[in-house]
Design a protein that fits this description.
With 76 residues, the protein is an all-alpha fold. It has one domain (2-66). It is built from four helices and no strands. It starts with a helix and ends in a 10-residue tail after the last helix.
């Protein structure tokens, strides 16, 4: 699973990132990158039969819909 996550992360580094000296995607893309890693890892778990859960029809949508969203509201 760590290899799948690392390979997915590496695939999301753009040429622009590399030109700026980054070895990771821009932090502004953290939610997109996190979702892509989660989908790849979950997909591997389903393919290897590591879960009894049935594979959702739209795994990427399920993951995005269940991601924590740190939305803070002002009470002022």
């Amino acid at each position: 699973m760590f290899f799948i996550a690392a390979r997915t992360l590496a695939s999301l580094v753009t040429e622009g990132d590399l030109q700026l000296g980054r070895v990771y995607p821009d932090l502004k893309r953290i939610r997109e990158v996190s979702a892509a890693i989660a989908v790849a890892v979950a997909d591997n778990a389903f393919k290897r039969g590591l879960t009894r859960m049935l594979r959702p029809e739209d795994l990427p949508a399920l993951i995005k819909d269940t991601m924590y969203n740190p939305k803070y509201e002002s009470y002022v």
